[in-house]
Amino acid sequence: MQITKVVTAVALLITVPVGAQPHHAATDAQEIALGAALADKFAAERGLVPRDDQDRRIEAYIQSVADSLGRHTRRRLPWTIHYDPHPGIHSGFALPGGHIVIWGGILSYMTTEDELAAIVAHEIEHIDDDQVSGRIDSLVRTKGRAVTDPSQWRWQEFGASYGETKENLCDYDGAKLAVQADYAPGAYETLLRSFVVLGEVHAPGTPAPKAITDRIEQIRAEIAEYHWEGLTKTRALRLPLSG
Ligand SMILES: [Zn+2]
After folding, report:
1. How far is ligand 1, taken at its centre, from the CA of residue 1, in Å?
2. 171 CA to centre of ligand 1 in angstroms
3. How far is the centre of ligand 1, averaged over its atoms, from the C-alpha of 3 (Å)?
4. Predicted pLDDT at 21
5. How many whole angstroms from 85 Cα to the centroid of ligand 1?
6. pTM of the model as a whole
7. Segment 83-105 mean pLDDT
8. For FRET with 155, which of 13, 80, 181, 231 sits at 20 to 30 Å CA-CA?
């Protein structure tokens, strides 16, 4: 009995309290500053400075979507969109501290703001789920990086996939975030199916990548799990000057 009590007491001592975060190499302030520095490097290296008016307006629109999602995140970070109009890159990626890059190519696949919310929420989750912090921790541990010295870091290091499990998790939790901000969760499927259909057009007979079809199955199952079947109302994508 006494032993049980001692074991329980020890277990309580080492249990992380609800709401507490695991320790990371960078504080939130350091992570935000590192992300801002990497976003500046990204803009300079990608030739995004100075920015033209249309890109600025598109970025502001994507930012408004990020703001509505950011009200429901676990971490209190300044969610900041950096738009790169490259038409051939159909994705986005998350930098440290709430900084998110969205490439122009993905916008051409969309017709609804809900699809835009889907990808922004996915990228937010890479940060809100501490995957980006974990990557920082790993580079500090294995390469001796200093979180306070942005010259030691490259933005490309945050563009690589986090692997199937974490990518799927970012859709799963991203859909919950999107629903909280009144977006239709089925937009994940719409966006993913664009990749499948265009893949079939450009390479007929080639099976769709399993990584994509798994994510389509996942959002369908999630909609059933949370009884979101009625949440089908979408908003039109309102890209500036697109009518
Ligand atoms: Zn991702």
Report:
1. 48
2. 8
3. 46
4. 55
5. 19
6. 0.90
7. 97
8. 181
Q: What is the phi/psi pair of residue 144, to 5°? A: 65, 30
Question: What average pLDDT does the chain have?
Answer: 92
Residues 6 or more apart from 114 whose CB is under 8 A from it?
A: 178, 183, 184, 186, 187, 190, 234, 235
The answer to whether the CB of 75 falls within 8 A of the CB of 96 is: no
Under the banding of pLDDT at 50, 70 and 90, the label for residue 22 is low
Alpha carbon of 238 to ligand 1 centroid (Å): 24
What are the extents of the domains in the chain? 23-225
- In 3D, which of 175, 159, 169 has the Cα closest to residue 130? 169
**CA angle, 30 then 71 then 176, to 5°:** 105
Find the DSSP H helices in 15-112.
28-45, 53-70, 104-107
Residue 13: pLDDT over 80: no
| 6 Cα to the center of ligand 1, angstroms | 43
Q: pLDDT for 135-172, tens place per residue?
A: 999 999 999 999 999 999 999 999 999 999 999 999 99
Calculate how far, in angstroms, residue 195's C-alpha sits from the geometric centre of ligand 1.
15
